[in-house]
Amino acid sequence: xxxxxxxxxxxxxxxxxxxxxxxxxxxxxxxxxxxxxxxxxxxxxxxxxxxxxxxxxxxxxxxxxxxxxxxxxxxxxxxxxxxxxxxxxxxxxxxxxxxxxxxxxxxxxxxxxxxxxxxxxxxxxxxxxxxxxxxxxxxxxxxxxxxxxxxxxxxxxxxxxxxxxxxxxxxxxxxxxxxxxxxxxxxxxxxxxxxxxxxxxxxxxxxxxxxxxxxxxxxxxxxxxxxxxxxxxxxxxxxxxxxxxxxxxxxxxxxxxxxxxxxxxxxxxxxxxxxxxxxxxxxxxxxxxxxxxxxxxxxxxxxxxxxxxxxxxxxxxxxxxxxxxxxxxxxxxxxxxxxxxxxxxxxxxxxxxxxxxxxxxxxxxxxxxxxxxxxxxxxxxxxxxxxxxxxxxxxxxxxxxxxxxxxxxxxxxxxxxxxxxxxxxxxxxxxxxxxxxxxxxxxxxxxxxxxxxxxxxxxxxxxxxxxxxxxxxxxxxxxxxxxxxxxxxxxxxxxxxxx
Length: 499
Prior knowledge:
Layout: H1 2-18, H2 24-38, E1 43-50, E2 55-62, E3 72-74, H3 78-86, E4 90-92, E5 110-118, E6 121-130, H4 138-182, H5 187-202, E7 206-213, E8 216-224, E9 235-237, H6 243-249, E10 253-255, E11 272-280, E12 283-292, H7 300-329, H8 341-358, E13 362-369, H9 372-379, H10 381-398, E14 404-409, E15 412-418, H11 422-438, E16 450-457, H12 464-480, E17 486-488, H13 491-498
């Protein structure tokens, strides 16, 4: 009787120790230490149930062989998996005679697995192993079962507390993101800031922002620890899956195990990801993508917080778009509606830097309407202005979306061509020349023509002055050769003229 009372007293003390903290790691460690010391176990582990994958994984252990604590056991596999399915203790007095045994330590001779239950739901398994055959008698099994009940409650309390703490941190993060994004009105800076804030606050491996550009999605910013497989600025059809479903249905898509799918991975180490549509005032602006190097990294409990962050980001992006449009008005030519020289000077430096960094090349075309002064004198400035507007419109219609058409001054135009070689720039200029020469300008009874000069990075120059001078000199050469033609600049003429 004294022996039994003593065991009950020790068990009570052990239960009180386990229930005295809400810290999950501390709770797990106390469970293991008490089981290890009091019940004289060589190896002991807490295996928790990952509900989405229906697998048991080792959360904490003492005495297991190196590397074995990384295993994941499906329900029904191993003695622990069987205990979780049966929802009752499973005992193997001699593991060498039990085909269900999975070896986690070479010294193990007997194993007892006790499910950790909360309201008839298995949350994990207490796995007890001894280096002696038939180590566990009925009394010890009963005591460990009672102990596991207390451990289950302590474990659930710690998990609930951890969840509340996580939600509190997420609310603080949401508030911080809302405050900081409200203060940023420059779109590029905003996108970088959003990625950095989310990655830091939610501890995901990588954060990316894809913004919609008509029927395409463009990777505008990303931040994190994974290796990109796509360049910033990379474009993808918005009509392809899973983008189409996300954008059309405005619902979040989570992929728990990318290794088991054929989905394209934008980051080499990505094992799971979540994609959240960015919606503002009913308009889908793009997608917020979160990647993790761990499978099953995203839980249902995270979804509400992350969608709240996505809504905040969408509103901030919409505001930045509005500010950007207002700014662009200062860069538009009032007569033609295309960009002005101020914008050209801003963008050419950006394109040169991008071409230098990524070795993608870029080119410029300087074009001029031939005999424009004579046209104004003959037909008046009103008709001359209309010719300028129509030439601008023709240029804009014939180039790509990423190209930039600017009115450089008077009747002269400058066109920026990202990712374009010297020969290709000449072909584009020639296409524009032919288009203008064949166009019927209302009220103008004669043919209107243009002359153009082209220059490319790095063939004709590596700086703004070298490229503009090379294209200008080529334009001058075209006019000297009789007008209505295209010439390509030279590196020597650019540097010689600029010196």
